[in-house]
Each structure stands twice: as C-alpha cells, then as structure tokens.
Amino acid sequence: MKGFWLKTAQGLTPNDDAARESLHGIALHTVVQVEVSRPRNIKFHRLYWALCSAIASSIGVSRDNVSDVLKLRTGHFTVVQTKTERVRLPRSISFAKMNDAEFRQFFDQCCRVVCEELLPHLAPTKLRREIEDMVGLPTEESA
After folding, report:
1. How sure is the predictor about 33, in pLDDT bands with cuts at 50, 70 and 90?
2. How far out from the chain centre does Cα 66 lie?
C-alpha cells in the first residue's frame, strides 16, 4: 500500500491515512521493505496548467490542446507506426510518470518553447516569474 511519510529526526512517520493503515498488523521491530521517492510538487504542477490556461485563453483553444502541443514541441512524445505513417502521440505528465526533477526540466523546456514560438520578446525566466505571480506562488528564490 502506498502512502505519504514525513522524515523526522526519529525516522519516517506516517503522514496520511494510507501510510498509517499500511502499518496495521505489522509487529514492532519487524523488518519491512520501503521504497522512498519524493512526490512531485503540486504547486509546481499548477504552474504548468496556469501556463497552458493562459495561452489557451489568448488563442481560443483548450488548455489540454496547448498541453499536447507543448509536449510535442519539447519532444515529450511517443512515435507509433501505423500502416501508412508515423504518428507522434503526447506522453503523460502524470505524477506516476514523471518525478519532480523530470517535471521541472519539462516545464523549463515548455517555457523556452513558448518564448521562442509565441513570446519572442520574453525570456523563459521572466515568463516563469509572470506565471508564478499569476497563480500567487512564491518564486523559487524566495521559497
């Protein structure tokens, strides 16, 4: 069973009901196997969808369409060979498919693409700060 854990000075402590439930029925001092990973930052994930929404509203398409285009432009796709052609299909950016570091790199690539193709007067770092301001998130420097 998966759950979220909090690292403390004493070790790992269950941080949600799923994590607490996973301990039921296990005797004290029993060795268990644990896989540790850091979940993707939900606030950072919101930046991506804010970027997609802002572009979508300015050009009259859905944010999902913008997301698909960004995935294709950044190379985040799978190529499928049909009988007559090779088709590029956007890959998932779900929490299960990308860790935090991979998602941050993807987001930085998206900002670069947006600035190159849509907003050539704007630097990617400036675009990122504007999106952070738009959603009310502190910048990484102040966080």
Report:
1. confident
2. 15
